[in-house]
Design goal:
It contains 7 helices and 4 strands. It has helices at about 10-20, 30-40, 45-65, 80-85, 100-110, 120-125, 145-155, and strands at about 25, 70-75, 95-100, 135-140.
Amino acid sequence: MGVSGSGKTTVARRLAEVLDRPFAEADDFHPPANVAKMAAGTPLTDEDRWPWLEIVRDWLSEQTKAGHSAVVTCSALRRAYRDVLREAAGPVRFVHLDGDPELIAERMRHRKGHFMPPVLLRSQLDTLEPLEPDEDGVRIPVTGTPDEIVEDALKQLNQLDP
């Protein structure tokens, strides 16, 4: 979880590879209207997000029912959004990729082929509600390399020997 440009896709793909788990990019579950809205620089509303979050939740449930733990990227910026994801069958743990807004904005300016424009970063930062102590998850700073971030996440999730 985290704002756009924090490295969710890069880190999640690597986590899924290391853990040998199915991977999904939640952005792929957005309906075309949501993608068009964001590409035009318009933030999504909660009404836009609820059906999308339910689709992501249902994908997680399908993986659990098939006997798989899975890795999915999802901004999950607000606790209410994470609450929807936690409705999935099986446990849901969060890795909050957190970083300096200037670093993230710089990354967004240099990436290619993504519909989310850097202009929406401020609205995401304003929306972000960090994990609370009672939420199952960890906060990982995004200052290292992708491999260092993955290693930190695995250690904090107790998936890797220290």
